Amino acid sequence: MHSKDQISHDDYQKTADWLMSQTKHRPQVAIICGSGLGMLADTLKCQDSFAYSDIPGFPQSTVQGHAGRLVFGELKGKTCVCMQGRFHMYEGHSLLKTTFPVRVFKLLGVETLFVTNAAGSLADGLQPGDIMIIKDHVNFPGLVGLNPLCGPNDDKFGPRFPAMSGCYDKNLRCLAMEIAKQLGVAGLMQEGVYAMVGGPNFETIAEARLLHRLGVDAVGMSTAPEVVVATHCGLRVFGLSLITNKVVKSYEDSDSVNHEGVLEVGRLRSHTVQQLVTELIGRMEINNNNTNNAA
Ligand SMILES: O=P(O)(O)O[C@@H]1C[C@H](O)[C@@H](CO)O1
Questions:
Q1: ipTM, 2 decimals?
Q2: Can you say how many angstroms the Cα of residue 277 is from the centroid of all Cα atoms in its chain?
Q3: Core-most of 46, 105, 240, 258, by most CB within 10 Å?
Q4: Distance 119 CA to ligand 1 centre (A)
Q5: pLDDT at 4
Q6: How far apart (Å, rounded) are the C-alpha atoms in residues 247 and 244?
Q7: Pairwise CA distance, residues 122 & 30, whole Å
Q8: Residue 39: CB partners within 8 Å, gap ≥ 6?
């Protein structure tokens, strides 16, 4: 990794300190909103919000459907911070920039990270509009060395060789399914494996077939680097993929996916995703094992 790509502990701390000087909220939960899912942030009470362009050190969002605002507020008695817009590798950000907010959240005292994304389904049982609870991921860029943890390890955040088994918290996954039953939306939900590809192009048919054979249930262009960095620094993680399209796996199929269609399904399911996340945040216990929470 080139030294100009490095971000020092002080750089993260400066951004965290600036945010703490601008808001009284001390978040326990951080939520990253996927494409078309930014409305989650609108439900926070007593909001303080900041354009990414005003936050020292923050990258900028360039993708349609990612507003570029950090929103602090209360949800069901928990203090939250919500990213209305995330950063993707394909936008040209380094992976450390892509995941910059996650370490800032850690320094703000966050103990649980919620990640949401839009994804295409490979599993036959997952239809557009379904919601997949992420059980595990395949980090394709990571497997070939495109990993935000490459380069010198920052021991203050976590170990050189962090385990990734169990990185999607099992208790939260079970609670989410229980809540889905109570909300009457269990029929839309199942657990599955998410794979991150680099994008920005959608998959070829041969790539789709390969992913399917490898056991991938849904594919997207984000999330894995954020989860790797969150797990490295000890955050508990919960993830949801909104299935926005079926990935074309047949040469006979004339369908093709586009970003507008992805955003449209996001709008259609926004209410359900919002209900699920809100209930889950309300009912989950906070461990307060993030020592920075004293701030
Ligand atoms: O930010 P997410 O992962 O939800 O965005 C997905 C992947 C691409 O950025 C975009 C394609 O439509 O949606």
A1: 0.98
A2: 13
A3: 105
A4: 7
A5: 58
A6: 9
A7: 28
A8: 33, 270, 274
pLDDT digits (tens, 9 = 90+) for 16-69: 999 999 999 999 999 999 988 888 899 999 999 999 999 999 999 888 877 899
The rounded Å distance from CA 34 to ligand 1 centre is: 6
What confidence score (pLDDT) does residue 292 get? 43
Is 241 annotated among the ligand-binding residues?
no
Active site residue 212: no
Does 34 contact ligand 1 (Cβ within 6 A)? yes
What number does the ligand 1 atom closest to the CA of 223 have? 3
pLDDT band at 294, cuts 50/70/90? very low
- CB-ligand 1 contact for 261 (6 Å cutoff): no
Centre of ligand 1 from the C-alpha of residue 221, in Å: 6
**CB of 220 closer than 8 Å to CB of 118:** yes
Q: Tell me the pLDDT band of 289, cut-offs 50, 70 and 90.
A: low
- What does the domain layout of the chain look like in residue ranges? 19-149+166-246+255-283
Map tokens 């990612």 to a residue.
66
Res 254: pLDDT:
80
User: Is the shortest distance between the CB of 244 and ligand 1 below 6 Å?
Assistant: no
Q: Please state which of the four CATH numbers 1.10.10.10, 3.40.190.10, 3.40.50.1580, 3.40.50.1000 is assigned to the domain occupying 19-149+166-246+255-283.
A: 3.40.50.1580
Burial class (CB in 10 A: 0-12, 13-18, 19+), 77: exposed
- pLDDT value for 288: 65
Model's pTM, two decimal places?
Answer: 0.95
Q: Identify any residues that bridge with 246 across adjacent strands, giving them in sequence order.
A: 121
> Can you tell me the distance from the alpha carbon of 154 to that of 235, in angstroms, rounded to the nearest whole number?
16
Could you confirm whether 232 is annotated as catalytic?
A: no
Distances (CA, A) of 215 to 136, 137, 148, 155, 245: 11, 11, 24, 34, 18
Sign of CA dihedral 177, 275, 39, 256: positive
